[in-house]
Amino acid sequence: MSSSVIITFIRHAESTDNLQPIWAGWKDAPLSNHGMNQARALGEFFADTHFTAIYASDLKRAFTTAQALYKQQKDPKPIYVSSELLREQNFGIAEGKPFSRRRGPYDTLEAEMKCGSYPPLRGLDEKYPGGESLIDLAERSKKAITQLVLPHMQKAAREGSTGIHIAVVSHGLCLGEMISELLKTSLNQAVETKYYGLENTAWTRVVVNIEGAQESQSIDVDQHPLMVMHVTDVNRHSHLDTIIRQRGGIGSAAFDPEQRDIREFFGGARARVTNGEDIMDNA
Fold first, then answer.
1. By mean pLDDT, which of 61-65, 109-113, 153-157 is the weakest?
2. Contact indicator for 181, 145 with CB cutoff of 8 Å
3. pLDDT in tens, 200-215
4. DSSP 60-124
């Protein structure tokens, strides 16, 4: 018996915090006017794609994006679930603080904070007080895959289903870790590739084929020899081609080139050090 599951990972639409150079992980900002237009365009784009379930972060920017997606779904409507597991990385005391681009190669995070500076985190284990490291985020992402995604694979394996398609609406860094954790369960995927850098409302898709599954078998988060995965789409956002930023209010805010670093970071770009300076790098 063979079966398949499609998972479409979607980054939230533009929030009001995306228009500011600040740390915004668990800081709960709403969508901007332009972001709402992005979310509507996303919903219209997927109107003829029937999702079995839609899972969303409970933070407003992702939750509202997922609602726009859900609204355009035809009957029977998919399951809709919001979960804290799908939140962005928590930046602790840095939340809402100005995002500092530069950091000396030998400057500690503690020294930077004493000067009122909140630069990009380094390595996998560095974190702001009260926040999460990338290691912490990866562990939470693994739980999200285990609790929200793998049950659909178990169902597909038991029933030989081929029509299961779920959407996960979350945040740039969290999505990058979730995709990595999912691919670790497949023997055919090299997990060295990191799927970071999604635009607002852009989507990346993974198709999971489960070969020779038996009704008595179960799937866990460890490698399973029957699961073969393929990343078929990355950072797709053609639905935004006709969306123009409105004039007036937040939605009309002109793009500021100086915002690029913070936008890329929360889209999933990572920081690296070159010639003694931090620069942003899409990993």
1. 153-157
2. yes
3. 999 999 999 987 655 4
4. HHHHHHHHHHHHTPPSSPPEEEEEGGGPPPP-GGGTTSB------TT--HHHHHHTT--PPP-TT
Distance CA 165, CA 162 (A): 9
Question: What is the widest separation between alpha-carbon atoms in the chain?
Answer: 61
Asked whether the beta carbons of 38 and 69 are under 8 A apart, the reply is no
- Could you give the 3-state DSSP secondary structure of residue 201? coil
Q: What value does the mean pLDDT take over residues 9-21?
A: 95
**Cα–Cα distance, 149 to 153 (Å, whole number):** 7
User: What letters, b where the CB count within 10 A reaches 16 and e where it falls short, cover 258-278?
Assistant: eeebbbbbbbbbbbeeeeeeb
Over range 101-117, report the average pLDDT: 87
* Tens digits of residue pLDDT in 136-163: 999 999 999 999 999 998 888 888 788 9
Q: What gap in Å lies between CA 130 and CA 114, rounded to an integer? A: 16
DSSP 153: H
Q: ω before 76 within 30° of 0 (cis)?
A: yes
Residues whose CB is less than 8 angstroms from the CB of residue 277 and which lie 6 or more positions away in sequence, other chains included: 102, 103, 105
Find the length of the chain. 283
Neighbour-count burial for 204-243, b at 16+ CB within 10 Å, e otherwise: bbbbbbbeebeeeeebebeebebbbbebeeebbbebbeee
Give the SS3 label for residue 230: strand
CB 87 within 8 A of CB 14: no
Cα separation, 261 vs 271, whole angstroms: 10
Distance CA 145, CA 60 (A): 21
* pTM for this model (two decimals): 0.85
Among candidate residues 31, 33, 18, 34, the one with its CA nearest the CA of residue 67: 31
Residue written as tokens 């081929």? 162
